Amino acid sequence: MPLIVKDSGAWKYPSKIYAKDSGTWKQANQVWVRQGGTWYQMLTTLEITASSSDFVLYTALGSPIVPLTATIEIASGVTISSSNTSTAAFNISGFPAGSVIYLINNGTIVGSGGVGAARVDGSGRAGAAKPGLAGGTALYTRNTLQLTNNGTIGGGGGGGGGGGRTNTGGEAYDDYTGNGGGGAGIIVGSGGGGAGPAAASGTSTTGGAGNSYYSNPGSSEQQYGSVGGAGGARGAAGANGTPFPGTDGTNSGGAAGNAIDGISYTTKITAGTIAGPEVN
What we know:
1 helix, 1% helix
């Protein structure tokens, strides 16, 4: 059972416990309860003072096997990021049912940026115009979360869509569309590549610019008007390529990364700055 205390006639989950020691009330960092001859941790605290990536809270707290209440504080100036768009920057899951997590974020939690779309040739030999890729998730939870956000939580920016094919002639095999810019993130999305110069990668807060078409010198089947979309800023989708939908209709910008995946598990005590979708 998780730790519950009675306050004014109502049972509540405590975020802090105090004990009297030599006449002075002091905050307990941990609370243990003995049951059936075995000691179980019921309450713990953790202060995160160094930046890191792919943070898994369950592992950091020793993979508890009984429900517990945990108060986690991310210090000011600390950044928790993700190394790729498939992994959340801060993961709260795996705790036994009944666990309650109090997260006080004074820093920054941000997902990885999505990659911009690569160039394709006009003849279709390299396939249809490419979409940008989605940004990554910042905060993921499947346990009860009480959130005090004094800082920033932001999904990664989506990658920009590739430029549309504007000349689809059979001789346009060496005439390439524009490529999309990379999305924003601490681990940024790279700009789309392929023949010719790559598009700009994102920054920690803004998306990179898309590039225009590129052809080998002397070609007469250039992809005039084909421009890749810009990558999305933190928590924003990438822009569609131009023209859109164009010949293929496949050159959309990548979706914004989720700021919070698990909003139904989350109670916002203080919302703070949240950039990006809040889902599930």
